[in-house]
Structures are given as structure tokens and as C-alpha cells.
Amino acid sequence: MKKDVGEVVDLVFETIKDALASGEQVKLSGFGTFTVKQKRPRRGRNPQTGGDITITARKVLSFKSSHIMRDNMNRK
After folding, report:
1. For the segment 6-57, what is each residue's pLDDT rounded down to a tens digit?
2. CATH number reported for the structural domain that contains residue 25 in this entry
């Protein structure tokens, strides 16, 4: 039974990864929404040398929790 559950969980995570990789957002009802956002290139500073560097454009994973999740977390 544990093996079956593990396989289902792996399949769910693989499906989420595939959806995000193709640019889709993933909504999990009562939990939250995962999206991929594009970050623009920007100027930065090398902390070791103090010199200016360019931080390249990249994609980042973003998560926004649902109101249900936030309400559950803030309940006293």
C-alpha cells in the first residue's frame, strides 16, 4: 500500500512539474496556486569584489496560498 501511495504522489508531482515547465499555472483547491514568472535581467553587485555584475533573466517559481489555507494558518 505504501508503495502505491508513493507512486501516486510521484505521478502528481511529475504532472505539476510538467505543467509548470510548459508555462501553465497549477491550482490546488484549498491550498494555493503555483505559477512560473519571468524575471528580467538586472544589475547587481558581486559581494566578494564589490564590482558590478549583470544578473541574467530567469524563470522563478511563485506560490500564492489560498484564502482557505491562510485562514487555517491564522486561526487561534
Report:
1. 999 999 999 999 999 999 999 999 999 999 999 999 999 999 999 999 999 9
2. 4.10.520.10
Residue 39 DSSP SS3: strand
Number of domains in the chain: 1
Please give the Cα distance from 53 to 29 (Å, whole number).
41
Confidence band (pLDDT; 50, 70, 90) for 76? low
Cβ distance 70 to 64 under 8 Å?
no
Which domain range does residue 8 map to? 2-74
Nearest CA-CA partner of 10 in 21, 32, 65, 2: 2
